[in-house]
Protein 1
Amino acid sequence: MSSEKVRASHLLIKHQGSRRPASWKDPDGSVIKNTTRDAAVAQLKALREDIVSGKAKFGELAARHSDCTSAKRGGDLGPFARGQMQKPFEEAAFLLKVGEISDIVDTDSGVHIIVRTG
């Protein structure tokens, strides 16, 4: 078992298929329960485009739009090792080089974009 860790930030958009259809900004889940996966992906793609084009900073968009409580830290999840995150998320994070941003990553929580920070 490798002790290698990565540090990453993410922006999560939940949708009606998410295992917990509620979040800090939608406590009763009324928005999430009416969001299709396709709509969540479309929103995430638009946010990713703003980041990649330099129109917006990842941390600012994560703070405003992410359904994860890590939004309060600009999406920062801190360092983590293999086995601590859902498999698709972990695999994507470990494949990134520092500073790279992922494509859309699907997990039981919703859809994410991930940026490796360390």
Note: The chain has a mean pLDDT of 96.
Protein 2
Amino acid sequence: MGLADDARNKAEELKGQAKEAAGAATGNDELKGEGKADQAQAEVKQKVSEVADKVKDGVNEIKDKLTGK
């Protein structure tokens, strides 16, 4: 994907950490759970982005071999 996606995923992860910390500090289990969920979602998005990048690299490598580059 790209740097913009990585930045968005990191921002979402940080938002989740902040929510989790706020929930823990205030005793709000719902907010704490939302924070953990946000972090998990950001992690999944990052893994999908990494796989997409690897697939794209593989496709480009095959194209280069086929075109003799």
Note: The helical segments are 3-26, 29-67.
